[in-house]
């Protein structure tokens, strides 16, 4: 667990704890089931459980830190057809969220 956290920080230069908080603020929790985030049991989008091991993001782009940060900030810049909306989260904030998602194994 500690290893996963260190690795997530190294990959993103983000703060996973802050990222977890941001996911409640920006409504991610309303659409996604996210382990470790209170009341995050949304079923609109896929569960983010085990996200660190996911090969593709949204089924279209290879899962890498920079692509994930871009997806979180503006998913439609990666897949114009995706149902996931732009939430208004900034790129800097998306980095912290990416850090948290990469702790999920
Ligand atoms: C209105 C509902 C909604 C909101 C709000 C939302 N998402 Fe999504 N999200 C989706 C849907 C639907 C998909 C599936 C998209 C696709 O496959 O095209 C998705 C896909 C994703 C994926 C890719 C998952 C995978 O396994 O491929 C990630 C990561 C993600 N969302 C993170 C977030 C984060 C972080 C937030 C908050 C900033 C957020 N989402 C807000 C609906 C939402």
Q: Can you give me a brief rundown of this structure?
A:
One of its GO terms (molecular function) is heme binding. The protein has 105 residues and is mainly α. It contains five helices and two strands.
Describe this structure in words.
The protein has about 100 residues and is mainly alpha-helical. It has a single domain (about 1-100), classed as Cytochrome c-like domain (Cytochrome Bc1 Complex, Chain D, domain 2, Orthogonal Bundle), CATH 1.10.760. About 45% of the residues lie in helices and about 5% in strands. The protein contains five helices and two strands, in the order H-H-H-E-E-H-H. The protein has helices at about 1-10, 15-25, 30, 65-75, 90-100; strands at about 55, 60. It has a two-stranded antiparallel sheet with strand order 1-2. Helix 1 runs antiparallel to helix 5, helix 2 (about 15-25) crosses helix 5 (about 90-100) and helix 4 (about 65-75) crosses helix 5. The longest helix is centred in the first third of the chain and has 11 residues, at about 1-10. The radius of gyration is 12 Å and the shape is globular. The structure holds heme C. It comes from Microvirga makkahensis.
Descriptive key words:
globular; 43% helix; binds heme C; Cytochrome Bc1 Complex, Chain D, domain 2; 2 strands; two-stranded antiparallel sheet; 5 helices; mainly alpha; 105 residues
User: Which CATH architecture?
Assistant: Orthogonal Bundle
Helix content: 40-55%
Structural class of the helix and strand makeup? mainly alpha
Please write the CATH class name.
Answer: Mainly Alpha
Report how far the terminal alpha carbons are from each other: 9 Å
CA radius of gyration is 12 Å
Largest beta-sheet details: 2 strands, antiparallel
**Can you give the mean pLDDT?**
97
Q: What's the name of the CATH homologous superfamily?
A: Cytochrome c-like domain
Bound molecules: heme C
Output the strand order for the largest sheet: 1-2
How many E strands? 2
Task: From the 3D structure, determine the CATH topology.
Answer: Cytochrome Bc1 Complex, Chain D, domain 2
**Series of H and E elements:** HHHEEHH
Number of helices: 5
Give the number of domains: 1
Tell me what portion of residues adopts beta-strand conformation.
under 5%
Any idea what the shape is?
A: globular
The residue ranges in which pLDDT falls below 50 over 5 or more consecutive positions are: none
């Amino acid at each position: 667990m500690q290893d996963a956290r260190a690795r997530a920080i190294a990959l993103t230069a983000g703060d996973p704890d802050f990222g977890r908080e941001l996911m409640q603020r920006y409504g991610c929790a309303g659409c996604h089931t996210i382990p470790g985030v209170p009341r995050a049991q949304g079923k609109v989008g896929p569960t983010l459980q085990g996200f660190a091991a996911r090969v593709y993001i949204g089924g279209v782009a290879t899962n890498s830190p920079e692509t994930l940060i871009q997806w979180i900030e503006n998913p439609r810049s990666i897949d114009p057809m995706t149902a996931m909306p732009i939430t208004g989260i900034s790129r800097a904030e998306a980095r912290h969220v990416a850090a948290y998602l990469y702790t999920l194994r």
